[in-house]
TrEMBL record:
GO molecular function terms attached to this record: hydrolase activity, acting on carbon-nitrogen (but not peptide) bonds, in linear amides
Matches recorded under InterPro entries: GlcNAc_PI_deacetylase-related, LmbE-like_dom_sf
Keyword tRNA-binding on entry: no
Protein name, UniProt field: LmbE family N-acetylglucosaminyl deacetylase
Keywords, ordered alphabetically: Zinc
Gene Ontology biological process terms in this record: glycoside metabolic process
Amino acid sequence: MINTLDDESVQRILVVMAHPDDVDFGAAGTVAGWTDRGTEVVYLMVTDGDAGGFDDGITRAEMAALRREEQIAAAKCVGVSDVRWLGYPDGRVEATLDLRRDIARVIRQVRPDRVLMPSPERNYERIYPSHPDHRAVGAAALDAVYPDARNPYAFPELLAGEGLDAWTAREVWLTGGPVANHYVDITDRFDRKLNALRAHASQTAHMGDGLPEMLRGWLSANAAAAGLPEGRLAESFQVIDTA
């Protein structure tokens, strides 16, 4: 286990994810706890999720619009109202300098104490969190935290052209990776996590009553790894000090 920032000292948190629904699968219960404490949370979605879904009768442009609506609704379930988009193509994300700059821009705009993002490492125990878009976004976002956002000479156009001063995010939380050193008990917020995921109907409606059972399986395993009592549910993270 690792010592994390005192939540009382955390005023703003930026969540950077590849697709709509990524944050809800990985961290919606934790986000609900943050917003309940009055912490400002901002979502940044790198893609619109246009390559997702199961309906051949809908165009990819229609799917992108639908998934934006679903993510906004899901965010409201856990107390988040500020959802931003970069519009990169779903399934083709790479950790480019352009993506690093675009994420660094939002870090400087939001000025978060903590940034939550996907792990850039592949998880061989559970392959699904290791979608290439997730790993690319994690790599770019971590580079945007260090060194890009804090270095006034990195992407000088952000300062000279947009007036965005350098900013140091003090902590990074990674989700979906092979290493976990921090767990959050979300038992009392499980229903809000479930509601957030059900808001992504284009992705989860086919799971029906199997969705809560699947979630409880994952979250119970996390709770056991954290040494929590039987019946508790937890989300897992790798926390990195980036101060």
